[in-house]
Design brief:
Blueprint: E1 2-8, H1 17-20, E2 23-30, E3 37-47, H2 49-55, E4 65-66, E5 70-78, E6 90-93, H3 114-122, E7 132-134, E8 143-146, E9 156-160, E10 164-167, H4 173-193, E11 201-205, H5 209-220, E12 225-229, H6 233-242, E13 246-248, E14 258-263, H7 268-276, E15 278-286, H8 300-306, E16 309-312, H9 320-332, E17 342-346, H10 351-359, E18 365-368
Parallel strand pairs: 4-8, 11-12, 11-14, 12-13, 14-15, 15-16, 17-18
Antiparallel strand pairs: 1-2, 1-4, 2-7, 3-5, 3-9, 3-18, 5-6, 6-10, 7-8
Helix pairs in contact: 4-5, 4-9
Length: about 375
């Protein structure tokens, strides 16, 4: 079928993106879903730093690529072997498909799916190959890579069924979209990798969508004290409005001595801040994605003597079909107001300007509505 999607052809173009316009909305041809695949009408997609890091070259990916990995959609058609969903169902998209059989999938979220990670790196679906081509209704245009098995900055998408989590219709599309990355990643850093228990203290370094979601989840699961850390005053003000007990600059964060610190900025200075804010016996959880080659020095004696640990966590060490329903239960109970993370709503044609706003830290989450 023919659809429209925002395609990146060249990484690392100069800012402002409103001028260089790295993303171009193209007519694309989607192949029919294979036996284990699903055709979706994309309802909402969040613009995340992981999208920006592909555009600016921080996360090299095969080109051309149709971006977007945090999204919700409505199932239009399914392959013959699909069992997870039926046409008409709303779904959350997960940017790490899970084969369910590898050593990663048997780790309860501690390690990423091995075939899923390989497919993502190659710009393919977990079921193998690509289903997107530029233009031409006969499907013979240039092949386009998938972004993390999703490619949601589009009117429609074909994904593997192992990339979807079915949800009920009481969940609005924008809330469902946020579950797929911001909440799974930030919330999972708190509940899965960080193992935060009621009464423990939590600090969050970096207040983008993932960091703010971590803050909300920490408060929802009964953290005794939640401290937010960011260089931007507007982000600190938002954190206080979301329920943080304190909002500090990085220079003020040393010695917080939190039981769990979530680093969600993805830069070396933020990692150092997070470690310095972790108390004896505490856990530093890294979910931000730094540029390749980033290095950080640590004091191993302090780590050993203090019984501290540093934990890397991809997708919040989540099992999406287990964790999305848990977070939605908190949302239904009014304890996880993720709608407050939405800065604005945009169309596909607004994505380049939206990238500038994200790079300038003027927004938390911008929601793309591909059908207006």
């Amino acid at each position: 079928m023919l659809a429209h999607g925002a395609v990146l052809t060249v990484m690392g173009q100069q800012r402002p993106y409103a001028v260089s316009r790295p993303l171009t909305v193209h007519e694309v041809h989607l192949a029919e879903p294979g036996p284990t695949e699903v055709l979706l009408r994309i309802e909402a997609a969040g613009l995340c730093h992981s999208d920006l890091s592909v555009v600016d070259g921080g996360r090299p990916r095969p080109m051309p690529m149709l971006l977007g990995h945090e999204a919700s959609g409505r199932v239009l058609a399914v392959g013959d072997a699909v069992t997870a969903v039926t046409p008409g169902r709303r779904v959350v998209l997960s940017y790490l498909p899970a084969c369910g059989e590898c050593v990663g999938c048997r780790s309860d979220g501690r390690r990423p799916c091995v075939p899923g990670s390989a497919a993502n790196a190659n710009g393919e679906l977990l079921s193998g190959g690509r289903r997107i081509r530029l233009g031409r209704g006969d499907g013979t245009g240039e092949q386009v890579n998938h972004h993390l098995g999703v490619s949601a900055f589009a009117t429609h998408a074909v994904v593997d069924e192992r990339s979807v989590v079915p949800v009920d219709d009481d969940v609005p599309p924008d809330v469902a979209a946020l579950m797929g990355c911001a909440v799974l990643t930030g919330g999972g850093a708190v509940t899965n990798a960080g193992g935060v228990r009621p009464g423990e203290s939590v600090a969050v370094v970096g207040l983008g969508g993932v960091g703010c979601a971590a803050l909300l989840v920490a408060r929802a699961v009964g953290a005794s004290r939640v401290v937010a850390v960011d260089v931007h005053p507007d982000k600190r003000a938002l954190a206080l409005a979301l329920g943080a007990d304190d909002a500090l600059t990085p220079d003020e964060a040393t010695g917080i001595d939190a039981d769990c610190v979530v680093e969600a900025a993805g830069v070396g200075t933020a990692v150092r801040t997070a470690i310095s804010a972790t108390g004896p016996g505490g856990r530093t959880v890294l979910v931000g994605l730094p540029r390749p080659g980033t290095r950080v020095e640590i004091d191993p004696l302090a780590m050993v003597a203090g019984g501290m640990s540093v934990i890397g966590s991809y997708l919040g060490s989540s099992v999406p079909r287990r964790d999305v329903p848990r977070y939605l239960d908190l949302w239904r109970a009014g304890r996880l107001p993720v709608e407050r993370l939405i800065s604005n709503r945009i169309g596909l044609d607004d994505l380049n300007e939206a990238l500038d706003a994200l790079a300038d830290a003027r927004v938390v989450r911008q929601i793309v509505l591909p059908h207006g």
